[in-house]
Amino acid sequence: GGRGNSAFATSKNKAPRIQENGEPGVELNLHIELKLLADVGIIGFPSVGKSTLITILSNSRPKIADYPFTTLIPNLGVVNRFNVKSFVLADMPGLIEGASNGEGLGIQFLKHIERTRVLIHMIDMSSESLRDPYNDYLVINKELEEYNPDLLKRPQIIVASKMDADMAEERLEEFKAHFEEDIEVIPISAMTNENLDKLVYRIGKLLEETPFFYKEKEVIDEYVE
What we know:
Layout: E1 40-43, H1 50-57, E2 75-79, E3 87-91, H2 107-113, E4 118-124, H3 133-147, E5 156-161, H4 168-176, E6 185-187, H5 196-209
Parallel strand pairs: 1-3, 1-4, 4-5, 5-6
Antiparallel strand pairs: 2-3
């Protein structure tokens, strides 16, 4: 970092031919991970309605289609509705069984969940999913636990999506039967806007009660390609 010749210029010698030699620099090989910071993260299997929800609640416009893994990157949107203090909502790409071991889109997106304070766990109640809602709930939580057990300590709002679909009410009742009465499940429909205000109010209340989970320093001492 030595000074160049311009530092020694004077009115009489405008182009000096002298300079200071620099000292040897420091060379590092760094592996840097970007983790998005959001207040609330939406998690769940592919095609459960995560992208649709963030589209309705914010100005975010993620790609939406009727096939799995439409969302390939986390999408962020600011929610400012129903007179609730605004917050940042993250639509996480769909998780599947084995995600913590790299299946599907793998841990490259699980890591972003570490930066959220509240989780919205969306469960598809439509019969078209051909999956059992309660098993979906268990699988996603198992993947969170295997990736980072602390994630299960985050406040989690269970949201039953696609309640406008056929058989959704019956599947919801079967799903709720697995929980204690004090466990709240919020049924919503993006098509009819059912209970979206209730969901936002619940998120706002939890954000007031939930501290940040930010770690000041996270360093991987050794990284092997």
